[in-house]
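Per reviewer request, we include the raw input and output of the structure prediction for the construct analysed in the revised manuscript.
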Amino acid sequence: MICSICKTKLRKVGNSFQCENGHSFDIAKQGYVNLSRKQKKTGDNKAMVLARTNFLEKNPYDFMRKRVGEIIASYHLGSLLDIGCGQGYYTKTWQAEKKVGIDLSKEAIAYAAKHDRSTLYIVDTIYDLPFEADSFDCVVSVFTPLPIKEIERVLRPNGHLITVSPAREHLYELKQQLYEHVILNKEERENMGDLVLCHDEVITEQKEIDDIWDLFEMTPYRYKSPKDGMDRIAKLKKLNVTFSFLIKIFRKKVL
């Protein structure tokens, strides 16, 4: 781990991490460390974290978490970084000798660290990762933007990036309630640099959900839905919802 201010190596000294230039970052009582410099964007707020926690802990996404966990376990990893890890719902179940989760939301990271002592959790931006080059065997991104240059930098040669994104029909029934015309999800195609696609797959399950509002609150639709659609969601007691995920595995080329 490196200092987010001067980029020199951090060492654990007592209950803090310190660099040779005197910058110090205290370890919170929950066990996480905040390396973030003051920024306007602070990640998910407490209400969003609570909604996501309430929903995820009922395990509707567990089949996806297990599938990604199977892929991770097959690599027998020494080190794993989960970017945009949120409250650690996925991170805490995955297997690696060293696990690190990073997210800009202090509320989410505090929850993650309190409930998972096997992982080092860090509050910081994913666009300027506080790690030396070639630090990780695997980077995982679940519904998180991809800072490709930073991922390439911290991945070891032949290391893997695993991404999870919404497949075409993910949350289709929820969108039917929100919008007059439903648009299927489109696959985002990015320039992956020196990361080569090795494998991709779509996994899908349909489940009856009784906490529709919590699901809605953790989606991007909460920011751009019409009032009448939101009113319909608020009145729903149950809804059969399609959960569909696109999983991709990339390998860092050896140059």
